[in-house]
Description:
The protein is an all-alpha fold.
Amino acid sequence: MDFLFLLLKLAFLFCTGSLLGWCLEVVYRRWAHKKWINPGFLTGPCLPLYGFSLVALYLLAQIDLSFITNPKIEKLVLFIVMSICITFVEYIAGLIFIKGMKIKLWDYSKMWGNIQGIICPLFSFFWMLLSAFYYFFIHPRILDGLDWFVRHIAFSFVIGFYYGVLAVDIVYSFKVADRIRKFAKEKEVVIRLENFKASIEKNNFILQFHNEIDSMRNDLDSYYEKAKAKIAQEKLEFEQREAAKRAKIEKKIADKRAKKENKK
């Protein structure tokens, strides 16, 4: 029975973390792209990465590190472990989609110290801060509430309903992802899902992708051509900057030579 209660607690935490994470990402994308974008892979309000992260934080918050005598160091080690675990979950999730589906759900490639654009030290640090916030301000306040929820039969019904809807969402979203994967394989590219969503003019937030194959193909073609043009423009600007640098260096060398000849 205790094991069943634990499963219900973890199921509830996964739902809560997925929903809250989704809300956080919606606000961030509104600020970053100046438009409402449904974040993540799924169609509904759920980001599993945050759900798994909240479950991990809940379990890790209960591990015994009393063998570390200094309380401050004990907490620091705990938060570092939490951050490493969340970063690992983030890396595995990102790798699965990039390698298997040719879809990049997020992109840290411009961040210092990033690995394959999936994880980076800055966001690992943010995970550590989030872990500390959870440990001090959330974890102590949810324990009694979780115990109350899992002992009421209605709670189990709510959890079951949520996962039923989630299962339908996953099936639909994988059909969409399969179309994107086929297009990415054909073009030999990796689709940055967030940029693709932002590029869709008929953006209706929740149902951003139409079921019609032709419609999605047109959206992907448009995104691909815009991405190619952007890359070409960035390449041209880079070459122009490099040419300007070389011209500046050559001018300095020529000026130095001229000064030496004048002295002679």
